[in-house]
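Now for a specimen:

…
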Amino acid sequence: MNNQKELGIIGGGLAGLTAAIHLLKHGFSVTLFEKNSFPKHKVCGEFISNEVWEYLKLLDLDIESLKPTKINRTTLSTQDGKTINSRLPLGGFGISRYTLDNYLYQKVIALKGNIIQTNVTNTVFSNDIFTITTEENKHYQFKIVLGAFGKRSSIDIQLERKFIQKKSPWLAVKAHYILDFPNDLVSLHNFEGGYCGVSKVENDIANVCYLVQYNSFKKYKDIANFQKQVMSKNPHLKNLFTNGKLLFEKPLTISQISFEDKSKIENHVLMIGDAAGLIHPLCGNGMAMAIHSAKIASELVTLFLQNTINREQLELQYTSIWDKTFKNRLRFGKIVSKIVLNPYLSKIVMKSLLFFPFMISMIIKRTHGKPI
C-alpha cells in the first residue's frame, strides 16, 4: 500500500482536471485516476459560459491558444421551424472536449500531478483516511478524495447512490460536422421527444449534440433513421443533416442520463462536476458548472489541508455553497425542459417571446451565474 497522500481525484473530465490544476498550483500533491486515455471525444454540448473565463485565466490557462469560437448570440426553434433570436447576456466560447480536456491533462502533467490510467473499483473511508482500490488491486491512501466521475459510474453503484437505482429516460447523441454555420451563434432546435444544440468549436467544426427521450428513439432502427424520420421535421435540422458532412465514423451516444438530485457528499467523498448534479443541456451551462464546482471544492479543500477548517465544516460548507450556487439553476432548467418538450406549451412560450424578446435574457440569466 502506498504512503498516504494529500489528494485523490477520481475522474479526469473538466471538473477533475480543473480541481487538480487548482490544488497543484497551491502546492498540494494530487493523484488523479482516469480510466480513459487522452485525447478523447465525449458526448457534450461543448459550449462554455463566460462566467468561468476569468477563473481559467487565474489558473494560468491560456484558452485563447486553443482557438475557441466566441459565441454571443442564440437562436431557438420550435418543431415546425419557427425561430426567435437573442443576444447572450454573458456570452461564451466553443471548444471541443477532445482539445480542452487534453490541454488540461497536459497542464496537470506539467505541474507534476500524478495521473494513473486505470479504473477505480472501490473507495473506503475509515479512521479519517480514504483508501482507493483500482482494478489491478492496488491501494492508495489519501486525506481527501474528490469524485469527478461524471454522469454515471460504477463508483455510483459502489457508493449506493440513490439516483443510480432509478432508470432514466434520456439518451444523448453527439457528432462533429463540416457545416455552414455562424461562429458566434449557438442554436437550439426542438423536435418530437427532444432538442438539439448546434455551435461551432475550434477549427471551423460544428458540434451537434442532442438529447432525446429513449421511448421516442427506440421506435426507429438507428440514429440515421431517427434523424431522418423525426428530427428532420424541423426544417433547420433537416438542412443540417442534408448539407452537413459528418466527421465521425458514427455519432457518440450515452444513455441513462439522470437529472435527479444527487447528494454532494457520499461517504465523505466530495462530488464535483456532473457527479454532483447535472443541468439540462438546453441551458448551455453544464461545462461552466463543472469548472465552477471544482473551484468551490478546491478552495474549501485548501482550507481543510491548511487546518483552517475540519472535515465536518468542509462538508457542510461545500454542500451549502454548492446548493446556493447551483440548486435554483437546476430547478429552473427542469421547468424549461418540460416546457420545450411539450409542443403545446412551447408554442405558447415562443409566441410570448416573439412579443417580449427581453424574456429570453431573463430565462438565460436564471440558468447561468455571474462571472467568477
